[in-house]
Amino acid sequence: MAPTAVYLCCAFAIAGFFLASQSPLPVGWVFAGLVWAAIAIAGYPLLPRSGQRRFSFRIWLWAAIALYAAGFWFYLRLPTPSATDISRWADQGSGVLVGTISDRPRLQAQGQSFTLTAQTWSPNPSETALKLPPSQGLQGQVAVRLTAVAEGLQPGQTVVLEGELRSLQAPRNPAGFDRQRYLQRQSIFSEFRGQLLKEDNPPLWSLEPVRRRILAAFRQGLGSDQGSALAALSFGNGLARLPGTLPEDFLRCGLAHATAASGFQVALLLGLTLACCRSLSPRWQAAIGTLTLISFLGIAGSSASLLRAFLMGEVQLWALLRQRSPQTLPTLLLVATALLLWQPLWIEDLGFQFSFLATLGLVVSVQPITDRLDWLPPRLAVLIAVPLAATIWTLPLQLHAFGTLSPYAIPANVLVTPLLAILGIGGVWAGLLSLVWLPLGSVAAWLLGAPLWLLISIVSAIANLPGATWATGQIAMVVVLLCYLSYALLLTWPRLRRRWRSLAVALIAIVLLPGLAQAATQQEILFLSSDGPLAVVRDRGQVGLVCGASDRSLRWDLQPYLEQQGINQLDWVLQLSDRCTVQDQWPIRQIFSSQSLQPGQAIQWPNLKLQWLSRTPNLWQLSWQGEQWLWLFQRGSDRWSLRDLPPLPSQAWLWSESDRLPRGWLPSIQIKGWISGSTAPTSLQSSDASTRQPDGRTRHQAWRWTPNGSLQSAIAQTSRPGLL
């Protein structure tokens, strides 16, 4: 088979892996894969004549078969727990777990986390001797979170832990991070929370002392926070994480790639190595380059995106050794296909997806964009074309995964790319010097303090600009596919390039119009699961918020939903507690609280009426298209009786954060359905079963109510995302 045919089959196989990851069920790929293969075959006559001359129909047919087969390979490699997996013993109380640490421990806001390869599990701690017993046939990995930080832990070390083994929990809120799915794709089906009892001696050979020596040198020269920032920019998040609010600032500026060890760092490192070894023979250059890349891979970690960059660098060194010019696009396709054949689940890794698409954009789009910027100085044109090409190719995936856009991403990348190059190269040199002599590495890191300070200042300034992050709403996967199909047509169809402006307008309309249409018609109340009362009221483009939750809940429970729905401002907010600082995070047109209102006062909108009925107990009434809601936000409400309250509707829905209702309430009010903060109020538990349905509790999951009188779970029941 000709090389071009192999490259085409690789491209179709990558598409097959991706499409299979979006199929709801493994059985669904039997039919969905045939449909996609048929669409690919039917598209052959639409190819321009040059494309048909380059790829015969027979080659195109083989490529469609590769697409179909890749999907089956993806499903064959889906992990499932074995009969002896540690997850079989989950949810049976506390115990002692013995195992070997599989990855580098990471600091968390409340303790420390790492992955553990299980060896033994003893449910009764009192019967377990605190020594390191041999394996008893137990298999599987566990996601461990320690309540206290244990210094000195490293991969390969055997530890004894005491705590509780639990099953993985499904996400509680819509658009929330699906940790259960994320861990299951890594063959992890249970989690452990507890404390460290005993640790074995660390392994004799490990790169962990090297990592710690480099990090210690950086922190000694620049301080703890600045040193960690330099380590993250030089070696990626595998060595250290950005301190404080810097991760959020880099994300808001569209610079998340700066700390994701991938092609940027590998290209800088390999280019520097080859420049230093220019006087040596190609064989020595290839050997030193390979040793450098392997060392960097060992220090930074072996993520999917870094492995992709590493293999592409090795191909470039092989081409140097053979004195040939490497072809970047075929290399990218071959390397990506090889990695996915080895581990198909990497197609769901966002880091791998963004790395692949950004590299693809640089390969195929930088030169055309540079040609259109010929009125600028050549170096400036390239400096603009590189982030612009990467942004164009990663934007559809970004809108699908996060639903946000960084308007300042391109100018931010243009401004900081020289600084990132200086810090990347300088950080690697400082790390190398620290291995020779620690103070020497500290001095080298100190010399990088000025560019590091300038970079952080620029990023912080841009991140705090108005509109630094714009929520566009999460787009459907079918829209993502249409965008990339349009990109492919622009590259292969010369006639279409003349009308690229019309195509761009059409794509923008396809991306934005569905979300705008949904927002203009949607009517619902979403009760989010959080550490306090939290609900979003949506009425045909108007968005209100009832908030009594903490800042942590606003960040992890509310913000993902608002970004997914493309909500950038709130029309009104009912603030129930001083700990709810929502006004500091989103623009708000009107904000109401107990300080600004008096009992009996009502707030009127076109379709909604919100009235504060009573201060003690804290009771509100919402009227919406003939439906009535009673919101009770005070515990111990049974101290009051119905005589202490104003007249109430005869039928109503109930949202209660109290464990007991006012005396005499139920005989006079028909509760059509209820939402409770934890469990059903005692008086409701003894009522008729039809009154207590549906049984929704916001502490456990989110619930959605619509004016037609239905109360349903807000969490999708499908285990896999769909195209729509």
TrEMBL record:
The family database entries (Pfam families) matched by this protein are listed as: Competence, DUF4131
Subcellular localization is given as: Cell membrane
Q: Which residues form the DUF4131 domain?
A: 25-193
The Polar residues compositionally biased stretches are: 677-693
Membrane topology designation = Multi-pass membrane protein
Q: Where is this region: Disordered?
A: 677-701
Asked whether the keyword NADP is assigned, the reply is no
Q: Which domain of life is it from?
A: Bacteria
Residue ranges constituting the ComEC/Rec2-related protein domain according to the UniProt record: 244-495
Q: What GO CC annotations are associated with the protein?
A: plasma membrane
Where are its TM segments located? 30-47, 59-76, 284-307, 328-346, 352-369, 381-399, 419-438, 445-465, 471-491, 503-520
Q: Does the record carry Coiled coil as a key word? A: no
**Keywords in UniProt for this one?**
Cell membrane, Membrane, Transmembrane, Transmembrane helix
What is the protein name for this chain? ComEC/Rec2 family competence protein
Source taxonomy: Bacteria, Bacillati, Cyanobacteriota, Cyanophyceae, Synechococcales
